[in-house]
Amino acid sequence: MTAENPQSHAIAEYAEYTDFxxxxxxxxxxxxxxxxxxxxxxxxxxxxLDRSLLATFxxxxxxxxxxxxxxxxxxxxxxxxxxxxxGLPVFGVDISPRMVALARRAHPELRFHVGSMTSLDLPDETxxxxxxxYSIIHIPTEHLAATFAEFRRVLVPxxxxxxxxxxxxxxxxxxxxxLAERFGHEISLDYHWRTPDTVAAHLAEADLQLQARVLRxxxxxxxxxxxxxxxxxxxx
Length: 236
Fold this sequence. Notes:
The chain has a single domain, classed as Vaccinia Virus protein VP39 (Rossmann fold, 3-Layer(aba) Sandwich), CATH 3.40.50.150. Helices cover about 35% and strands about 30% of the residues. The chain has helices spanning about 5-40, 50-60, 80-85, 95-105, 145-155, 195-205; strands spanning about 70, 90-95, 110-115, 125-135, 155-165, 175-180, 185-195, 210-215, 225-230. Strands 3-2-1-4-5-9-8 form a seven-stranded mixed β-sheet, sandwiched between helices. Strands 6-7 form a two-stranded antiparallel sheet. Strand 4 (about 125-135), helix 5 (about 145-155) and strand 5 (about 155-165) form a beta-alpha-beta unit.
């Protein structure tokens, strides 16, 4: 019997980790233009409850000004622009270079950077808040707590996180879907739908304190309930 090589195990885990990031980047690069055309008006055309939660987050984040807010998984930049209109110093981070280029074109007054929410190129305790709407759905469950620990690292004490995601159904804590095509483009994109309780448990594991959770029923063309979670880094 051959003893297990811990270094080989670590390399395999790292390869799996980078593989999903690379697949997500390539997929959103492929669909960036069509995705932007379809969703660039969000949250202006969203449910009033969604906008009210963003306004609540903005009020909380104002307490930590001038520390900026990061919109993680910023896509076309519309959420960043909405938070800017609410008076927040905000910038966007997205894994897709094509998405970042389109966001910069649409919102030249704001900053957008290529990066991953799993490893933010930011010093400790520099952000007054984090918004991640419909972007943690591409993070595999085994990497979720570590991603939230990264959020905690970059938040100032007392800073807040607002998460938005499609919820899993009542029959299970998580559902998974792999798409090989979207908007007529070949992609390789994984979706992970979880219940609010499941996400809240991972936040707690990262020492981010749950403050509110909202689950609203599907509206319009939506097929899944929309979940929102507000959490905070302990003050002091």
